[in-house]
Amino acid sequence: MTIGSVSQALSAYGAAARRAEAEAGAASAAKGVAPWFESLLKAEIDGARASLQAGEAKSIEALSGRASLQQVVEAVTEAELSLQKMTAVRDRVISAYQEIMRMPI
Amino acid sequence: MDLDSAMTIAAAGMKVQSARLRVTAENLANAESTASTPGGEPFRRKTIVFGNRHDRAAGVDLVDIRRYGVDRRDFELRHEPGHPAADASGLVRYPNVNPLIELTDMREAQRSYEANLNALQLARSMIGRTLDLLR
Hints:
The complex is a heterodimer.
Chain A: H1 3-29, H2 36-63, H3 69-101
Helix pairs in contact in A: 1-2, 2-3
Chain B: H1 2-29, E1 46-55, E2 60-70, E3 76-79, E4 91-94, H2 99-132
Antiparallel strand pairs in B: 1-2, 3-4
């Protein structure tokens, strides 16, 4: 999987999260409850997306000889770690959601 | 985050050490570079000075290249009357580069680079292992 496709997947996630947040916001506006899960997920996704884009930009700079190898390693490692963090938080949030859905009424 | 900053600092350390290795390589490669005209100056040994730079945005002290300098020590004189750079008495000025010092400097750059590399790897594995708690 290339970084470009990861970036596209992330923007799709971001769009889904924003949609979910808009719906949840509309639903919870009446009750006055902040959409916790959605905003948490959205913050994570935005962070991961920014660092992936930074990693990609540094790689391109390095290819044209404007960035050092160390800068590329740093940016790509940061992007990798924030992607891992994002997926870990997402898995946790989804498993919590499934736990609630499985609850017998 | 502290671990992220540790990675940034270590990367800066690796960057300056690679610059140091470049200066050392220049000195070693030019250890025999004399002038081509009589009485001209040969290659002068280059030096590199490090300093710390406070990164206000990240709130950390990074290492940076303060400046590149030249070694003011005297040149080595060798008696080679047939050399194009020889003066009236047949002496040629050779660069003030001592290969032994350069090799030691190179080894020091390598050790320091490896130390920074280890710090980077450690910070990365610490973040990874902390994230594993979520899984």
